[in-house]
Amino acid sequence: AVLVVDFGAQYAQLIARRVREARVYSEIVPSTMPVAEMLAKNPKAIILSGGPSSVYAEGAPSVDRALFEAGVPVFGMCYGFQLMATALGGTVDNTGSREYGRTALHVSQADSTLFGGTPDEQQVWMSHGDACSAAPEGFTVTASTDVVPVAAFENDEKKLFGVQHHPEVMHSTHGQQVLEHFLYRGAGIEPTWTTGNVIEEQVAAIRERVGSSRAICGLSGGVDSAVAAALVQKAIGSQLTCVYVDHGLMRKGETEQVEKDFVAATGVQLKVVDAQERFLAALAGVSDPEQKRKIIGREFIRVFEQAQAEIIAEAEPGEPVEFLVQGTLYPDVVESGGGSGTANIKSHHNVGGLPEDLEFSLIEPLRQLFKDEVRMVGQELGLPDEIVHRQPFPGPGLGIRIVGDITRERLDLLREADAIAREELTAAGLDRDIWQCPVVLLADVRSVGVQGDGRTYGHPIVLRPVSSEDAMTADWTRMPYDVLAKISTRITNEVPDVNRVVLDVTSKPPGTIEWE
Ligand code: XMP
């Protein structure tokens, strides 16, 4: 693997993704991992990510010089670049000025390993305070900006490279090429990693782990759990039973879709559990988002345990149900604070929300994949497009789209509004242009309206259409006004107690995609 050392910025994930787009397998490791441990993983190359700190700040994460002396190719970006510069004897000035956003990069070595074949002038994305004024000995300076004299340096002999900008973000127009140049030319790695390999590897590993035992899998109707289930089914066939928990937080028609489409596509054994009462009771009066997530996660597991007991009771003697399959993705793992120094932003119900007394061993075959990779795996497994290209829907469902506490009435309201929005988006042919469009009920907010001749005092519905590549970052979708108008008119006309529809025009960051 190529290791991406995470210096505390969410950029590390994006870098890992870009490396995989270059068909090279990558993994993120925290910057606190000792260099010996990193090297023990036999990495093909190491990338040092950006980070929020100044290398001169007290307690700023650093890296042992040994990392640069092991003969492993290293590419430093932004903060990683400055660390490299200081560790190897270059000069980084604490300038006090900042360079932020789109910047023109002047390439001074047209045939360099990193930049050869890219334009002499290119747009890059910068975000830094300190600036490198002298490269370490033995390095060639290959680019600069109007502000920074040393914006890139390279040492082909030692296979050490660095750039001040962020090649991983879209705004760096030749970033992907620069990254690939490092991987292929600088580190000599062959681009051979594919999702096909993932399936083979996972199928073999799951077979071996499960043996003659049985597994159950929670199915939500979403892409992740569907692909995880299909993958495990390929490995162990009828030893898998899927459990679909109807927690009452699903959207309109969702249960029927799982029962029909998914079973038809995979032939999987499915058990449907109606747990609506139970979830509503556990969530009664709870309005804190983290609380909701924890409760939903906990109840999920409890319901599985019950299903497990039932499946055991029905199974032949000597067939233990030991495993629980979950569609946990790589971003879930990283965002829940697992495996790196990044902040805990939300507890995803299938990671941070797990109770401590969990009685299953987990199988998480998608744990190392990003969403688009999961879709590719699903496609390769032969799942239908309607499932593979479904817009994401969070495990806690409509429960985290009601701001305020959850009641059956509020759920019904939101379900109606959501169904209208989805219907109109589909009718307008916008499904694939929009990453997802959460519809949120502000149950704790009321506003005055007028309908017919009367005053109303109802709740607002928020439309949150976003465009994204991987849900790590997102922008609000500039969707046609006439479609918005239609959704708004229909929701206020058809959904009782809703007298206002508002559009969320916040990107991520600073907003997250969901409201809770
Ligand atoms: P945020 O709101 O963090 O969401 O920007 C990023 C993506 O993750 C989905 N999401 C979840 N998915 N369990 C899930 O399976 C969860 O607890 C959860 N929370 C958010 C969200 O819909 C978006 O696609």
Question: How would you characterize this protein structure?
Answer:
The chain is α/β, with parallel strands linked by helices and 516 residues long. It folds into 3 domains: 2-186, Rossmann fold; 195-388, HUPs (Rossmann fold, 3-Layer(aba) Sandwich); 401-503, 2-Layer Sandwich (GMP Synthetase, Chain A, domain 3), CATH 3.30.300.10. It has helices spanning 11-21, 35-40, 79-87, 175-186, 195-210, 223-236, 254-266, 276-283, 289-314, 330-335, 371-380, 385-388, 408-427, 481-494, and strands spanning 2-6, 26-30, 45-48, 74-77, 91-93, 99-107, 121-128, 131-134, 140-144, 152-155, 160-163, 214-219, 240-246, 269-274, 321-325, 361-363, 402-403, 439-442, 447-451, 454-463, 466-468, 474-476, 498-503. Helix 6 packs across helix 11 (371-380). It is globular and about 70 Å long. Bound molecules: xanthosine-5'-monophosphate.
Number of beta-strand segments = 23
What percentage of amino acids are in beta strands? 15-25%
Question: What is the arithmetic mean of pLDDT?
Answer: 90
* Spatial sequence of strands, sheet with the most strands: 2-1-3-4-11-10-9-6-7
CATH topology of the largest domain: Rossmann fold
CATH architecture descriptor of the largest domain: 3-Layer(aba) Sandwich
The number of distinct structural domains comes to 3
What is the CATH class of the largest domain? Answer: Alpha Beta
